[in-house]
Request: fold
Amino acid sequence: MELCFLGTSSGVPTKTRNVTAVALKESKGKGWFLVDCGEATQHQLLKSSLTVNNLQAILITHIHGDHCYGLPGLLASAAMNHRTEPLTIIVPKAIQDWFEATQKFTQLYLPYPLRFIDAESLPSVTIGQFTIDLTPLTHRVPSFAYRFTESTIKSYLDFEKLAQHNIPRGPIWGQLVKGEDVVFGGKVLKSRDFTYYSHPPRRIIIAGDNSEPEKLTEFSRDCHALVHEATYAKELAVQAKEYGHSYAELVAQFAEKTQINNLVLTHFSPRYQAELNADTSIEQLRSEAEKVYRGRLFLAQDLARFRMDTQGTLEQVFDE
Reply:
């Protein structure tokens, strides 16, 4: 599976960063998911290999404009690109209302159906190769973190256990490897007892704006990677709390405490510049995070891609 950051700035875009949007690609095929859709996300897509026709679902973390103002334009472009497949959109109910009003007043016609799911009432849903669930965060408005768990991992038969229980080769083996429980010899054979997976399910959490990373403590159990905002440095901790945001050290401390092996920081205030000698450099955030976190730390950049292997290790991918 692969992450692609389409926007990494908070509030407003800069010359090098667009506002928030993150793509998550499935491990097989061309399907992908979009978490948040700030203004001009569709323009960022033109700089990537992602296409609107392969988009499986859009998920919005909260109602603020830097996370959703690009939604009508993206959906309109999908129509212009002849999309016909239904599209699932998981959003706070207010965003559905806003989009439907925009669609009405701009006479936006979509040749494909939209399936809206209210984020506030979502238990979990399986789409494509992921099972998706969420948890609430702390922000000035309701904000959510989405967790993506692989749901289509190849399973294999445990031939030794099959032999131990004298289970003959045939249709029963086929049912077990498909995940089906089977009645044999007056007993129920549980698929999980006679199969194993090629690797454990990989889990990635992509969080919305949040001033309390510890809200993710239980949610992040067995998580391989966390994508979390670090809008400010520690020197602006009071301001971060006031506006419902986190600072780099705070997030890094949480990731270290909960033993998350891969941490990607994003959603940076425009005050933090790319130049190392700038008065407020982005490297300030990296430095304070590295002091408290021993895992694999990344600071996202627009169009940066990260690939996770089957063991849950995240690596940045560079074009040759």
Notes: The radius of gyration is 22 Å. The chain has a mean pLDDT of 95.
